[in-house]
Design brief:
Elements lengths: L11 H9 L4 E2 L9 E5 L8 E4 L14 E6 L4 E11 L12 E5 L19 E3 L10 E2 L4 E7 L9 E10 L8 E2 L7 E4 L7 E5 L11 E8 L5 E10 L12 E6 L8 E5 L2 E8 L4 E8 L7 E9 L9 H8 L1 H5 L3 H4 L7 E4 L5 E5 L11 E8 L5 E10 L15 E8 L2 E8 L8 E2 L4 E8 L8 E9 L8 E2 L6 E5 L5 E5 L11 E8 L4 E12 L13 E5 L13 E3 L2 E4 L4 E8 L7 E10 L12 H28 L1
Parallel strand pairs: 2-4, 12-14, 21-23, 31-33
Antiparallel strand pairs: 1-2, 3-10, 4-9, 5-8, 5-10, 6-7, 6-9, 11-12, 13-20, 14-19, 15-18, 15-20, 16-17, 16-19, 22-29, 23-28, 24-27, 24-29, 25-26, 25-28, 30-31, 32-39, 33-38, 34-36, 34-37, 34-39, 35-38
């Protein structure tokens, strides 16, 4: 691009900008007489350079027809842009008219690196406030171009300022062996001298991945070893939509191929998600079919040694599973020499019982215990309390912060997070982990002859505590209800009647006969959130659909609701429950019925407690009357 005559007629403010940027700017080239270009090819020994809109931090001028910011790196590098401030007047929602900043990074055609022309397609358009701009932009190749345009309206928007840097793209190479003839399939083997751990990325990471692509990552460990994957960053699409409705999705299979059970389905955005295979094989399948690809994913893998090896001792297990998050709780928590520290692995047994020290006798004063649970595959840890009696202060305080207590921790975003605290003498409801790991911490500073502690039944479950329907192995948590098997029944949220686990999506499929419809009667409903139950309010939700895809007839349901009914329009109905990593509720319980399409639903008669008690009294009185003749005979004969 050669400097055009119109480029010499820049406004005084633009000339000031060019003058201030001379230490990092090469001579620009114009695509056409209306465009000017500032070219960045070096940071001149610094870690980062800077760029900004004209006149920043004062409002930018109107009528900037086309100002190009061109960043050109070395062939083995990519461009990183980070906006430290962003304020472009949003005249239109789609940011394609008025004031906007267009991003080009798939530059094609003849010319020097970074050259664009009228046939170049932009990757995205930006406008609005700082919240509308991405945290960072990464080019897939060695060049990136921004096009800044302002309309005729004068406004007080200040524009943008940011930093740029050139990064060696080889640090984002996947540590597997690329499968010849495929676009993005990799093999990871434990054989020979290959490392026991490494990294894997989606195509073009950290830039956006291409659409219409499917990548497979095959892992093959040694016999008795496990494959552990930690998804450090997943950024496919923004929002909290069900993974079944996403065109871009990551599926993890607990075996060599897609016929193996699905451990996880990942979509939207999340961090620190961990999976562990049950055996030496694991498959990750990444499918991208949307028109709006995201950044993708960055993950680590580890071929974990068998549990009975010296490499998997207690300290090693803690480090591999909870890592720094566990150590951050302090030396007492990370110490494995505690007299009441216990570990429970599903390799040993799928269920068992744990008790406080000396149970059922009182626990000693100054007791500090840790109980850690390690599952595998899609297993979740479920705890059911059989007895619970901790020291309770005489004033009857219900605050658990300063009394004897039992706390439950799960792994959220790669860190330990407390999800439950129990104290006093009330029997807690069941609890369930959000993944294959859970930790309990018991602190009993007081003691008395009544404080017998607790008894807990634990189990590693794959059905999420859902005992009705037929579970599908194609999804981590999905259940089918067919009218050919039962015309009515019940279903509930995971871990019912206890609080549902975080980071969980469960789907319930109802299949009726050709002339049938599905009627659902919710008897209990407590799903954390506020209407309209969207991601902006960090709400969990339940949604319904007459189809496998989205159904606009039904909105999302969340919050605490009284009994209500939902009915399908056809013989198929889908119910989706989704929880995030924030707060939780006790979930829902519901009755389902398959009815003929012409039938009206008739609720079963409800008997209140008063009438139920009266009925019991009448029954008792009748038995007493019938027994009187026999008593009279025994007394007088």
């Amino acid at each position: 691009m050669g400097r055009s005559g119109s480029a010499m007629e820049l406004s005084a403010t633009l000339l000031v900008l060019l003058h201030l940027s001379m230490h990092v700017v090469d001579e620009g080239h114009a695509v056409n007489p209306s465009c000017s270009c500032i070219r960045y090819t070096s940071t001149y020994g610094k870690e980062r350079g800077t760029f900004s809109s004209p006149d920043y931090p004062r409002p930018y001028p109107p009528h900037i027809d086309c100002l190009l910011y061109t960043f050109v790196a070395a062939p083995h590098e990519i461009v990183e842009l980070v906006f430290t401030d962003f304020d472009i007047f949003k005249d239109h929602l789609d940011c394609t008219r008025g004031d906007y900043l267009k991003v080009y990074w798939e530059v094609q055609g003849p010319g020097p690196p970074g050259a664009i022309n009228e046939r170049s397609a932009w990757a995205r358009e930006l406008c609005g406030s700082r919240a509308d701009a991405p945290p960072a932009l990464y080019s897939p190749g060695p060049s990136l171009v921004l096009e800044f345009h302002t309309g005729a309206k004068q406004n007080n928007a200040t524009g943008f300022v940011g930093t740029y840097s050139f990064i060696d793209r080889r640090i984002f190479d996947t540590d597997g062996v690329h499968v010849p003839g495929t676009e993005c399939d990799f093999q990871f083997s434990r054989s020979g001298s290959r490392p026991t751990h490494g990294r894997l990325y989606s195509p073009r990471y950290p830039s956006i991945y291409p659409n219409n692509v499917r990548c497979s990552y095959h892992f093959h460990a040694r016999p008795k070893e496990r494959v552990k994957i930690v998804f450090e960053e997943v950024a496919l699409q923004k929002g909290d939509i069900s993974c079944l409705r996403r065109a871009d999705i990551i599926k993890v299979f607990d075996g060599r191929d897609t016929n193996s059970p699905a451990i996880a389905m990942l979509c939207n955005e999340l961090t620190g998600y961990e999976v562990l295979s049950t055996g030496p094989a694991l498959l990750i399948q990444f499918t991208a079919n949307s028109a709006t690809p995201g950044q993708g994913f960055a993950a680590t893998f580890l071929f974990q040694p068998p549990p009975d090896s010296t490499a998997a001792d207690s300290d090693r297990l803690l480090k591999l599973s909870f890592g720094k998050a566990f150590e951050s709780l302090g030396p007492e928590v990370s110490a494995t020499t505690s007299s009441c520290h216990q570990e429970f692995s599903s390799d040993g047994t799928k269920h068992g019982t744990l008790t406080s020290p000396h149970y059922p006798s009182p626990y000693p004063p100054n007791t500090h215990c840790h109980y850690e649970f390690f599952g595998r595959g899609k297993e979740r840890v479920r705890l059911i309390f059989q007895d619970f009696y901790l020291y309770k202060s005489a004033d009857g305080s219900i605050d658990c912060t300063s009394v004897d207590s039992l706390q439950a921790f799960v792994n959220v975003d790669g860190r330990l997070e407390k999800v439950e605290t129990f104290c006093g003498i009330d029997l807690p409801k069941p609890i369930m982990s959000n993944g294959p790991k859970l930790m309990l911490e018991f602190r009993g500073t007081q003691s008395s002859r009544y404080s017998r502690g607790f008894k807990i039944s634990y189990s590693f479950v794959e059905n999420f505590g859902i005992n009705t329907g037929r579970q599908l192995k194609e999804f981590p948590c999905a259940f089918v209800y067919n009218s050919s098997e039962a015309h009515n029944g019940t279903f509930a949220s995971p871990n019912s009647p206890g609080p549902y686990p975080r980071d969980t999506e469960c789907t319930y499929f109802f299949h009726g006969g050709e002339t049938e419809k599905v009627h659902l009667h919710f008897t209990n409903f407590d799903v954390e959130g506020v209407l309209p139950c969207h991601a902006v309010s960090a709400s969990d939700y339940v949604e319904f659909s007459n189809y496998m895809t989205e159904d606009n007839r039904f909105g999302r349901y969340c919050g605490q609701m009284k009994e209500f009914h939902v009915e399908s329009e056809r013989n198929f109905f889908k119910v989706t429950f989704r929880s995030n990593d924030r707060l939780d509720g006790t979930g829902f319980k519901a009755i389902y019925q398959f009815l003929e399409a012409t039938d009206e639903y008739r609720a079963p008669p409800v008997q209140d407690k008063a009438s139920h008690s009266l009925c019991i009294f009448d029954h008792f009185l009748m038995l007493l009357i019938l027994a009187i003749p026999q008593l009279h005979h025994q007394l007088y004969h």
